[in-house]
Amino acid sequence: MKFGGTSVGSIESLLNLRDIVKAEPEPVVVVVSAMGGFTNQLLAMCEQAQQRDISCLDTLEAARKRHHDAIDGVVIESMREEVHATIDRFIDDSLKPYYLALATNPHMPVKEIERVCDAIVAHGEILSSAIVAGMFDGGVPHLSLNFMRTVPDGAGRVLEWEETGRLVKEEFAAIDGGVHVAQGFISRDKATGDVTNLGRGGSDYTAAILATLLDAEALEIWTDVDGFMTADPRTHPDATVIPQMTYAQAQEMCDAGAKVIYPPTIAPVAMKHIPVWVKNTFNPAAPGTVIID
Ligand code: ADP
Ligand code: ASP
Ligand code: MG
Q1: Ligand 2 pocket, residue 33 CB under 6 Å
Q2: Domains parsed from the chain with CATH numbers
Q3: pLDDT tens per residue, range 89-141
Q4: pLDDT tens track for 149-190
Q5: Whose CA is nearest to atom 10 of ligand 1?
Q6: Angle, vertex CA 181, rays to CA 161 and CA 250, nearest 5
Q7: Do residues 289 and 278 make contact, with C-beta atoms less than 8 angstroms apart?
Q8: Ligand 2 atom 8: the closest Cα is on which residue?
């Protein structure tokens, strides 16, 4: 079950997420995005820091408060203190030093800037997943940096399936129940161990990779619209939900820019004939879309 940025972006949506997950038979693997808008903020702060604009630290404090407020609203009592401390630790011991390094080192080589910004942007999912894992009694946190591996490919990166497959199977080998929570989007370079990612919108792909490697019964993409629609409802208010599509139809629409699913998501699940559901976190009763053969 993958929950996107808006689905983890507010107390209201996180409480919906909790009810949706609790209604599923276990074991379930929950893959989360960063809280809505936070990935953009993390990247904008990278730009600001490089311009020596230290006001980026004010934005960071606002983000800290947003995460702490969410914890108070949704995390189970017995976990709250620990999750608050986790958020503070990542902000104070990791994000702040990274931003200060960018702001105070005018001679940082471009490669190093890229490396630092990739490490920074991974924090969106690391922080949101700490909150989501803390919502479930006995929720099991997993760190995707430990099992998602990429390799360079031209100007970008691609998943390294072999090593990722081995590590994912190792990580999830023993599970026979429970709510397992992992971060979408984030990974490490296979050779260097540097923090990398699967590209913007990549949390869908993380969930598809895990569904494929773990032979999931289904992949559910929980988002902020009632399903895969005939067009983007933001620009086409008359768009309607497509109840059922084939993998090929979904792939074609994603390639043409239907942002509801990140394009690389479809191929792995199609290969294993795993049904993909697109459902609305804010309207779980709506039937949604199922993508099958
Ligand atoms: P998430 O944060 O859950 O991953 P995204 O913003 O990436 O959500 O994707 C959901 C958004 O995709 C919707 O809010 C909608 O505006 C947009 N969208 C574009 N094309 C489509 C489409 N064909 N069907 C449904 N939503 C679409
Ligand atoms: N947080 C990342 C992004 O905003 C990945 C994702 O949400 O899928 O692109
Ligand atoms: Mg998305």
Answers
A1: yes
A2: 2-216 (3.40.1160.10), 221-293 (3.40.1160.10)
A3: 999 999 999 999 999 998 999 999 999 999 999 999 999 999 999 999 989 99
A4: 999 999 899 999 999 999 999 999 988 899 999 999 999 999
A5: 260
A6: 55
A7: yes
A8: 201
